[in-house]
Every structure is written in structure tokens, then in C-alpha cells.
Amino acid sequence: MIMNRLNQNVIKLIIAILLFSQTNGYAQTTITNKNLVWLSNPQKIKELDSLIQLSSKWALNKSDYKLDYLEGVLSKNVPQINKSDSVKVDSIINTIGIHFFKELAYGNQGPELQYKGANLKLTAFNIPALLNEYMQHKSLTQLVSDLNKQSLEVGTILKTLEAYQDSLPLKQEKVKLLIKAANEYRWLHAIKQSQNIVLVNIPSAQLRAYQGNKVALFMKVIVGKKSTPTNTLLSPIFQVTVNPYWVVPKSIATKEMLPKLKKDHDYIDRNHLQVLNQNYKVVNPNNINWQNYDLDNFPFTIRQSTGCDNSLGVIKVEFDSPFGIYLHDTPEKGLFGMPNRFYSHGCMRMEKPIEMGKWLFKNNPIALDSIDLQKCYNSPKPIPIPVTNNAIMIVWYSLIDFDEKGYIQFYKNIYNR
Question: How far is Cα 128 from Cα 125, in angstroms, rounded to an integer?
């Protein structure tokens, strides 16, 4: 009788211990909780771990994603004492997954830009929702593949990167350039989903206008020479000016023009220039003794009259710029036939200015059609026209670009950046 009672008490105690352990999260059944997305599916943790191990294949760095923590969970070195700790562990794994896939979508860094005139939010992808969907219905491997296929440019760069990574000996410099480019083009692709983009790449001296994923315009540009480099920037385009004045930057006026003004009295008229005083009123240059002025004492503004001979041509695209650089036409069309197009003082000259103007006036087709841009009028009045096809101007510096047929090209580091 006593033994039977003892056995019954032991059985009751064992049942109580089991119930207590289950309630407080000690038993393995805890991780089957529907809120524990990862711990209830260890195979997904293994898949995430395996994918992160391959990060370099996709131009990412595996050391950025807490691999030690994932492997600790897989080897059960990360303690899960109770339900609360299990939820925390699951949340950390989820954060690692979101970080990894977010960088596959947006890149691990955007381009280095000297000026950002707009704060663009990266919202093209809902990474938490995508991760949850692929966890439940597809695979994480498929999510990697689908994100890498989003951009044709990124896909091409990754294929080239893989070829260089597999080459013997490894071409380290080109691998670095490809890794940088893959992440910058991911960033660009994400922005293109919500913004029209005009992209100028300085080393290739090329321009692309993007409407979504489509290249709406492709053209050559003239950019700054090594001594007067073009600055990188991001800024909204707000206006196109037809028949613009060229307001000569003070550095050019004092360093390049002033010595000529002192020697050549006809320089102003011959180059269709005007001299403005401090009140921005046109003054007679013949009444000025140029010998009295120098780099530190020059109270004038010099601008070039409008018309066919104006250095900005017949169209100037305007955007916020602290550097005084613009995108504009040019009367020197022959320079577009040159293989190395680094001739300007920093501004960017367009091969196809009329096409650019029409694209920016997409919703206002008569804006340019009503103006005869082929006639050479004598000092026509400037016509500022707000753009209707809103776009962001991006000028970046990438040694990797694509030719008109979409083939990847490596370019010289013209500014030694």
C-alpha cells in the first residue's frame, strides 16, 4: 500500500514537472509557437546561414550579418531558457534576415555624392513582408534570385563579378569596382521605382534618362576636365530655360577673362559678353579701366548674351546646385565625336538637348514646339519653363558603366578618385 502511494505520488510529481516546464518554455514544444517563425523552422535558419555564407557572390560582406549568432542558434549554444528568451532569439534572427535581404534590394551603400539636394526614401520593397511570404510559400534562395533579377544592370554586374571571382589570378581591383557598382546600381534601381531619373556618369561621360526601368534617353555628354572637375550631386530638376544667359563663374571671370580684358579691348564684343555692376545693371565695358582690378577686387558680373553663340546653347536644364554647374546645350557639337569628353569647366553639355527638353516637358508638348530653336535670333529673351515630367538629377562617379547596347564597360579613373 505504502509503495503504491509512493508510486502514485512520484507519477503526480513527474506530471507536475512536465506541465510546469511546458508552461514556462523549457520543453521543445515551446518553439512550435506560431509567433516563433524561425525557431519553429530550423531549416530556414540553416538556409539563411548558407545564403549569408555566399554573400561575396552577390557583392555583399558576410561579416555584416552576425553569422556567429546564427551558428550559435543552430548548434544550440544560444540559450533559450523560457518563452520570453525564445521570442527574443527569434526576433534577432528575423532582424539578421531583414538586414541581409534589405541590402540585396537596396545595396549596402549608395554612391558618394558631394551634394544631396533631396532626401530620397528607399521604399520600393517591403522587405519584412517579402521575407515572411517567401518563408511560408517559397524559399529564401528564391528570394535572393528574385531580388538580384530586379535590375538588368545589377544582374549583369553580378555575372561579371562571378567570372572575375572565379578567375586565376583573382583580379582584385576589378572585383572591388564591381562590388561597389552592384550596390550603387541596386540603390539606383530602388529610386527608379518612384522617380524619373537623369543620370550622368562622369568617367564614361554618358547620360541616361530613366522612366521607371526603361531608358528613355541615352546620349554623350561633355564633362569637366581634370583641373575643373564636375561635382557629384543629387537634386530635383525644376526648370528648363530656353535661350539662357551664361553667367560666367567668378573664378573663370577673374582667372581667365580678366587677363584678356586687360590686353584686348574688343574681347567683350567679340565674345558677345555683357558686364554687370553690383546692382546687376549692364554697364559700358569701355568706361572701365580693367587695370585697376584683380582676383581679390572684381565687383562685376560677366554674362554672355543669349543666342546661338552662347556657351550654354539654346537650352539649360536647371536644378539646385551649390557648385554653379548645369546641364546644357553647346555650340561646339564636334566635341561629342571625341572618345574622351573632358573639356568643360564643370558643367555638363548635352549631345541631344532638344530631346531632353521634350522629355522633361512630356505633359506640355507645345512648350518647345512653339519655339523655333533652329533660327539664330539676335539676343532673344530667355524663356524659363517649369518642368512637367518631374525628375531627379544624379551625377555620380562610377568606373563601371554600360554602353548603348547594354554591355558592361570599365572606364579610366580620370579624376584619380
Answer: 9
Strands in 301-402 per DSSP E:
301-304, 315-319, 327-328, 342-344, 348-350, 383-396, 400-402
Q: 63-114, pLDDT tens digit by residue?
A: 999 999 999 998 887 766 566 788 999 999 999 999 999 999 999 999 999 9
Q: Are 101 and 130 in contact (CB under 8 A)?
A: yes
Q: Which three cell numbers stand for residue 344?
A: 568643360
Distance of CA 186 to the CA centre of its chain: 8
199-245+308-417, which class in CATH? mainly beta
Distance, CA of 21 to CA of 27 (rounded, Å): 6
Q: Are 74 and 45 in contact (CB under 8 A)?
A: yes
- Beta-carbon contacts of 101 under 8 Å, excluding residues fewer than 6 positions away, are 127, 130, 131, 143, 144, 147
pLDDT digits (tens, 9 = 90+) for 243-287: 898 888 888 999 999 999 999 888 998 888 999 999 989 999 999
Phi/psi of residue 21, each to 5°? -65, -35
- H or E element in which residue 223 lies: strand 214-224
Share of the chain above pLDDT 70, in %: 88
CA 339, distance to chain mean position in Å, is: 25
Q: Contact at 8 Å (CB) between 348 and 328? A: yes
| pLDDT confidence of residue 373 | 62
Amino acid, single-letter form, for residue 232: T
Contact 347, 200 (CB under 8 A): no
- How many Cα atoms within 13 Å fall on the side-chain side of residue 119? 0
Which of 318-341 are b and which e, b meaning 16 or more Cβ less than 10 Å from the residue's Cβ?
bbebebebbbbbbeeeeebeeeeb
**Where are the domains positioned within the chain?**
23-194, 199-245+308-417, 247-304
The C-alpha cell at 87 is: 521570442
- Exposure class string for 111-146: b at 16+ Cβ within 10 A, else e: bebeeeeeebebeebebeebbeebbeeeebeebbee
3-state DSSP assignment of residue 384: strand
CB contact set of 241 (below 8 Å; sequence gap of 6+): 315, 316, 318, 382, 383, 384, 385
**CB burial of residue 344 (10 Å; 0-12, 13-18, 19+):** buried
How far apart, in Å, are the Cα atoms of 343 and each of 132, 201, 203? 52, 15, 13
For 107-134, write each residue's pLDDT tens digit: 999 999 999 998 888 999 999 999 999 9
